Every structure is written in structure tokens, then in C-alpha cells.
Amino acid sequence: MRLFRKMPLFVGLAVAASALSYGSSANAAACMKITLTGTQGGPPVFKGQAGAGTLVQYGDDSNKCGAIKLQFDAGRGTTQSLSSVGVPVGKLNAIFVTHMHSDHTEGLTELMQLRWHFGSGGPKVDFVVSEDAKSPRGHVLSGRNFAKHIGDALIKSGEMAQRLAENPKRLPGGPADLMNVMAFPKAPEPVVVWSSGDVKVSAINSRHIPGHSSYRVDTPAGSVVIGGDAGNDKPKPPRSSSTSQSVEKLALGADVIVHSTIHPVMGPDKDSGFPPPIYFRQSTATDLGAMAKRTGSKHLMLTHLIPPMGAPRQGPYKIPGGALTEASYTSAVNAGGFTGNVVVGTDLKTLQLP
Ligand SMILES: [Zn+2]
Question: How far is the CA of 105 from the centre of ligand 1 (A)?
């Protein structure tokens, strides 16, 4: 297992609340599974694609690589995606959020409500997110508040009181009572934010909106980085790349990189009409390929695709040359010099290590 040279242990998190001792037979081979629970890029909808999210599982043959289950982001439809791969929401050990944008969080509400209905007896799920982050304009991005108020609409509508009257074994405060909030302070360098047995999760802040963080999971079976919507610290050219320096630091030597992606065809040098500031804050498929080559990664999983494959338009903007295909994305990555395995994300696509 590769570890970072400098990885201070974030106090108190060494043993996570829901860290379970998972039964693995002594000689069983360790394995890891990475599943894209949703690949839609941003708030639009397209052909039923689920919102952004990645499930990382670790274990061995005896438990189908699923002794530990970690969910990274939970856009709309995450609960359905998890059910499609046979993962009950009550079995998630921890949920990690990259940033407080609805396309990465709105699925959490239904996920936690379902867990409250049938899992009020516990265990709580660890909810790992950046500590409150203030923008230069004064507004605050708060994962803490998201968790605290996750059931508010159903509390205010009276549903919670009605359900509790039927079954007083449910937790009185609603789904918020089932979330163990583990907010980590500013992380300009990788810090361990969650661990259980052989599994360690590190985080680093990266640029997109205040509080945006990228994660890395290290296990004896391999390692994966979840970049989220990270972009370069310089918001626009001239710069050497659109990708994030922080993600690159986190991803050094990682086996797999999962990252949000924009296709270069949407750039201002083409005639899509797509707003340049939004284009520039995403990582392009070509620059991700170049980054994955530099980090020595074997697999690059593109997700949160802008535009989606097969889409005739990206919202109101045209796609120069017409709808994109899997080959359009793969060749854009290869143009960055990456010769490893490119996975162009579709919902439920899964990669297993080793
Ligand atoms: Zn997004």
C-alpha cells in the first residue's frame, strides 16, 4: 500500500464511528470495486442518468469485495443505483461529499430518509465533508447545515410526526439523527479523514467552490482518487493545464482516477457558445489524460460528462460536430498522452482491482 509522505492523522478520526470489524478469511485475496452510481454532469437531466456519485467497496472473495462500502457524492437517483447493484442504503459505512452543489447532494435526502425508515436502530452513517467554508462574498458552504436540516421538509409537513406515531422506534429527530457528521478542517495537504481496518481515506481541498475537496481511498487491493469537479488553481488560461494541482498531488501513484470531465469541443475556440468561465472551471478530458500519465495511474474513469454521450445539445448550447460518442472521449484522453485504461462513464459501470 502506498501512503503519502506527509499525511497527518486528523485527530479523533482514526477509528470511525461505524468502523466495523469485517470478517475476512485469513488467506482470501483482497479486492476493491469502484462503481459509478451516477454520471450526469451538472444539474440538467438526460435520458434518466443518475446524478454524480461513486461507490467504492473493499473486501475479499468471501464478501464479494463488499465488506466496506463508501459512497462519494450522491446526486439524484443514487438510491436506485445502489439498489441496482444490490447495496442497501443501510449498509453504507460512510458518505463523503466533494462539495455543496445539488447535483452532488440531492440524492442524499432520499437515501437518508430511506435509512431512517428501516434503519433507525442503527448504525449511524459517517458523513464526511469539509468544515464550513466562507466565500470571499461572505456566503458560507456548510455540509454541517445540510446534514442538520436534511429532514426539514418532511418534519415541517408533519410526516415525521405521523410516522413516529405509527412506529416510535424510529429516531425522533428524523434522518439527521442517523448522520455522524465528521467535518474536517482546511486541508491544503492530504489528511486522513476516515479509516477502518486496512482502508484509509484522505482528503485535500481543491478548487471549484469554497470547501470543495477531493478524496483518495487506499486499500491493500489498490487505490482510487475521486477528484470531484476540481479544476486548476488558475481560473483561466494562460496556465499549463485545466486540471487541479491538488488532485494531482493526491493522485500520485494511485491506481485509478475518477474525475468530472468536460470535452474540449465545448471550448471557446470552437463555436458551441458555452460560457468560457464554466468551461474553464472544469477539467478537460485531454488534460485529465495528461495528468493520469504524470501520476502513473493505470485507469482513468471519466464521469460527470459534459456533454453527455449522445446528447444533441448541452442545455441551450450546441455541440460542434454533433453528439459525442465513447470514442470522442477516449481519443480526447489519448491526445493528452495517456495510454492506460480509459473508462468513459455510464451509470453502474464498475471496475474491479486487482
Ligand atoms: Zn457537479
Answer: 10
Q: What is the mean pLDDT of the segment spanning 139-153?
A: 97
Say what the pLDDT of residue 315 is: 85
pTM (predicted TM-score) = 0.92
Pairwise CA distance, residues 180 & 165, whole Å? 25
Q: Would you say 62 and 326 are in contact if contact means Cβ atoms under 8 Å apart?
A: no
Q: What's the CA-to-centroid distance between 278 and ligand 1, angstroms?
A: 11
CATH class of 31-353: alpha beta
CB 259 within 8 A of CB 302: yes
What's the 52 CA to ligand 1 centre distance in angstroms?
7
Q: Where are the domains of the chain?
A: 31-353
How far is the centre of ligand 1, averaged over its atoms, from the C-alpha of 318 (Å)? 20
| Per-residue pLDDT band at 307 (split at 50, 70, 90) | very high
Given a contact cutoff of 8 angstroms between Cβ atoms, the answer to whether 42 and 305 are in contact is no
Q: Which residues have CB under 8 Å from 79's CB, separation 6+?
A: 89, 107, 110, 111, 114
Q: Residues 13-29: pLDDT tens digits?
A: 434 444 444 444 456 89
Distance in Å, CA 252 to ligand 1 centroid = 23
Q: How far is the CA of 95 from the centre of ligand 1 (A)?
A: 17
Residue 237 contacts residue 280 (beta carbons within 8 Å): yes
C-alpha 173 to ligand 1 mean position (Å): 30
Coil, helix or strand at residue 64? coil
pLDDT digits (tens, 9 = 90+) for 6-15: 344 443 343 4
